[in-house]
Write a structure and sequence with these properties.
The chain is α/β, with parallel strands linked by helices. The chain is built from 13 helices and ten strands. Helix 9 runs parallel beside helix 10. The longest helix is centred in the N-terminal third of the chain and has 34 residues. It starts with a helix and ends in a 7-residue tail after the last strand. The relative contact order is 0.07.
Length: 380
């Protein structure tokens, strides 16, 4: 008996000494493999969340996810981690891209009752589900949705609502009390008119964002590059796609942000050093990033009187999923790395610090500028 106590103490001492470093390495490796990133997207009840497809770190559902993942591996059984549960087949929007009504809607079919859906939830949790997505149709049209959320054992599973946001302001309070963890509002365009036209529902954009209240900062980080080659060889479709995302997308997001921000605000546009110099085989992409830098300066001038600051960050080569093909290609990687003073490419965390600075009050007198983070590549 005494020997058992000694062994337990020895184990606890070992865990106390080694847990911190090991846990950090485990998390870094696990999320990089599972999600291909290690970025915290928000905090839920004080705990970091890396993806809507995973529970909050150190929550009870995250323990369930880890335990079930080990079980699946050891037993070689393909059991679900996530379940998307369509709680109804009704929707109040007619989206151009949605095949739901043509492929699913059946007026003669009976929707499951509260008890039946609760039983489906129970069975899913028995199989090991640690993330439960409530989807539809439009799930907010289902009146008993709070009761369905309460049917979930929160020690095992985190809950996420996928919605077009049209009824969110009316139902958010009851869902929050029921224990709903996260809400995912789908938005097709930062341009309200275009979004509502696409959804076939006037006023939907304003209703969707109304519940989120105050907004202080915006980071424009979305980008695409569907063409790699000489500029004159690009097709019109590829040209339009790159400019649609990289320039118009940024602009519409800023316009929407400016219309909703109350008091001081900050916009951070992610540009690139290829927008500041010749960009072999990335010329069109470089043009869009040059446009972003120009947009940053002009909007900083236009929005400054309203207390909105607009700045940009121009990274060099960063090891992200977007740039993975460049990082993996030895000749391309060396083209960038060989011209840096530090002799390497960057990691995402080395860019994030600049964004945090530009969003914070520490940069309250900084606007209209582009911070270059390239290991010294453009300094010569």
């Amino acid at each position: 008996m005494a020997m058992d106590s000694v062994q337990r103490l020895r184990l606890r001492w070992f865990l106390a000494r080694g847990a911190l470093g090991f846990t950090s390495a485990l998390l870094e490796t696990s999320y990089r493999i599972y999600l291909n990133h290690t970025k915290v997207i928000h905090y839920r009840a004080g705990r970091p969340v890396y993806s809507l497809s995973t529970p909050a770190l150190y929550s009870k559902p995250s323990a369930n996810l880890l335990a079930r993942s080990l079980y699946r591996t050891i037993q070689n059984k393909n059991l679900p981690n996530m379940m998307s549960l369509a709680v109804n087949d009704a929707c109040n929007a007619r989206c151009e891209h949605c095949s739901f009504f043509e492929g699913v809607e059946d007026p003669t079919r009976t929707v499951l009752t509260t008890e039946q859906v609760s039983e489906v939830i129970r069975q899913g949790q028995e199989l090991g589900v640690s993330v439960l997505n409530f989807v539809g149709g439009e799930p907010l049209l289902r009146q008993d949705l709070p009761e369905l959320v309460r049917a979930v054992d929160k020690d095992l599973t985190t809950t996420v609502l996928f919605t077009n946001g049209s009824m969110l302001s009316d139902r958010a309070s009851s869902l929050r009390k029921a224990g709903l963890d996260s809400v995912y509002v789908s938005i097709d365009s930062a341009d309200p008119i275009r979004h509502d036209h696409f959804r076939g529902t006037p006023g939907l954009f304003d209703r969707a964002v109304a519940e989120f209240g105050r907004v202080d900062g915006l980071v424009n980080n979305a980008a695409t590059n569907v063409y790699f080659g000489p500029m004159l060889g690009i097709e019109d479709g590829a040209w339009d796609k790159i400019f649609e995302v990289n320039v118009k997308g940024y602009f519409h997001c800023i316009r929407s942000f400016a219309a909703r921000v109350k008091g001081p605000g900050s916009v951070v546009n992610i540009a690139s050093i290829v927008g500041m110099r010749a960009a072999p085989l990335q010329g069109v992409y470089g043009m869009t990033k040059a446009a972003v830098i120009s947009m940053t300066k002009s909007l900083a001038m236009e929005l400054g009187s309203g207390g909105i600051r607009v700045n940009a960050i121009a990274p060099g080569l960063v090891e992200t999923r977007f740039a993975q093909v460049l990082v993996d290609d030895e000749s391309t990687r060396e083209h960038f790395v060989g011209r840096t003073f530090l002799g390497r490419h960057a990691q995402p965390d080395e860019i994030a610090g600049a964004a945090i600075y530009l969003l914070s009050d520490a940069s309250s007198y900084t606007t209209g500028h582009t911070i270059v983070i390239d290991g010294g590549m453009t300094a010569t």
